[in-house]
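Input protein
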Amino acid sequence: MSDQEPDRNDHADDQVADLLKHAARRAPAPAATRARAYADLHQHWSKRHQQNRSRRQVVQWAIAASAVLGLGLIFSQSEFSVSPTAVTVAELQRTSGSGVQVLNTDGSRSPNDLTDLAVGQILRTDGSSRAALAWAQGGSLRINAGSEIELLAANRIRLQAGSVYFDSESALAPATSDDAFSVETAYGLVTHVGTQFQTRLHNSVLTLSVREGEVSLVAKQHRLLLPAGDEVDLDVDGVTAERKIRAHDDLWQWAQDIAPAFDSEGRSVQALLDWIARETGYRVHYRDTATAEFVSRISVHGMDRLGPMQALHSIPFIADLKYELIDGVIEVSLLDLPR
């Protein structure tokens, strides 16, 4: 700011003061004039007030509409966000018979070509049908004829009727794993500890059979840890019977019959024999080192449609091998070919 601006402002103030000092007081306006001026002022004020009020109402309405729209969007988004998303937990790998049904949460029946199974669905088999599921977190679940299961979670099913067989496909799963597969029943919760086991409901009794590894059973009155080779019956009061079983007993036959096919293309005879052993409960023994080396080098083809025992019977036709079944053992040796 320049130094001359304060001087100009002071001079202007002095002029205004001098004019006011010499000005005479004006006579009051007539009453009619004052009334008319007041009326005009009041009309002008009322008009402006009404305009402001209308403007405020428009703004309020706009805010309210925005709020309602926002809530609508929130509810709309909430509706979509809380709608349960189907969580796939298993794949339907194989069925036998025509009586396998998959029911949705609303009771409707899923298409016959459905393969992905989700939480909340129910799978039923009639008296002549079975099913094999590949579990998403690992393992193979088999459902026997005349059974019903409900898929509860990524690691749990509820057995309503019949029998199920589970193969974790690994004996190394920790007992405390949060992902351990469990079967919920009216008599207790059955959890695998890296194992093969069967759970069966019949005549108000739960029968639990352990083929490999261990199984944990948590019931109302007790907790059990069953090792391979043990079978127990339970009712609402607890254990009613205990038995010893073998891995190749007939009670496992139905699970073997519905076993998923072996992916044989390019695999070795040794891999095929390992699969046969796991599905049948037999152990494989090679008579000598030469046999063991031979089966590891020879590949197999076209075995995908054969069951475990059918594949075993076919081995002499695909390789220069022979076998014997001796007390739960598959004894494999090279054929004695003429020299």
The longest strand covers residues 188-202. Residues 1-13, 15-29, 61-84 have pLDDT under 50 and may be disordered. The chain has six helices and 17 strands.
